[in-house]
Design goal:
The protein has one domain: Ribosomal Protein S8, Chain: A, domain 1. It is 34% helix and 14% strand. The protein contains 2 helices and 4 strands, in the order βαβαββ. It comes from Symbiodinium pilosum (Dinoflagellate). This is Smr domain-containing protein.
Length: 97
């Protein structure tokens, strides 16, 4: 899964993952990567934290799960404010302030 952080540590790319794998990757990112980003920011305003899910156009026909909806629901269950970006419907933005 070397491509998960291909666009930087503040953007998690979940393309090509199942819902379960996407959630595990998200938990890893939240617990292992973002604390380092926040620590290294030195108290400056944090950049937006983005999860790239895509909008399902490249989803194989046999795959029925919607990764974006699943990850968003799981994050909300954890009490993390999250929304779909208006400018790019294939991305979720998190508020970790």
């Amino acid at each position: 899964y070397s491509g998960l952080l291909r666009k930087g540590k503040t953007m998690l790319d979940l393309h090509d993952l199942s819902s379960g794998a996407a959630w595990l990757a998200t938990r890893w990112w939240l617990s292992e990567i973002l604390p380092l980003v926040q620590r290294d920011s030195g108290g400056t305003k944090a950049p937006p934290y983005i999860i790239v899910t895509g909008i399902g156009r490249s989803r194989p026909s046999w795959q029925t799960s919607n990764i974006q909806s699943f990850v968003m629901e799981m994050l909300r269950n954890e009490g993390i404010p999250v929304w779909v970006q208006e400018a790019n419907r294939g991305r979720l933005q998190l508020d970790l302030s």
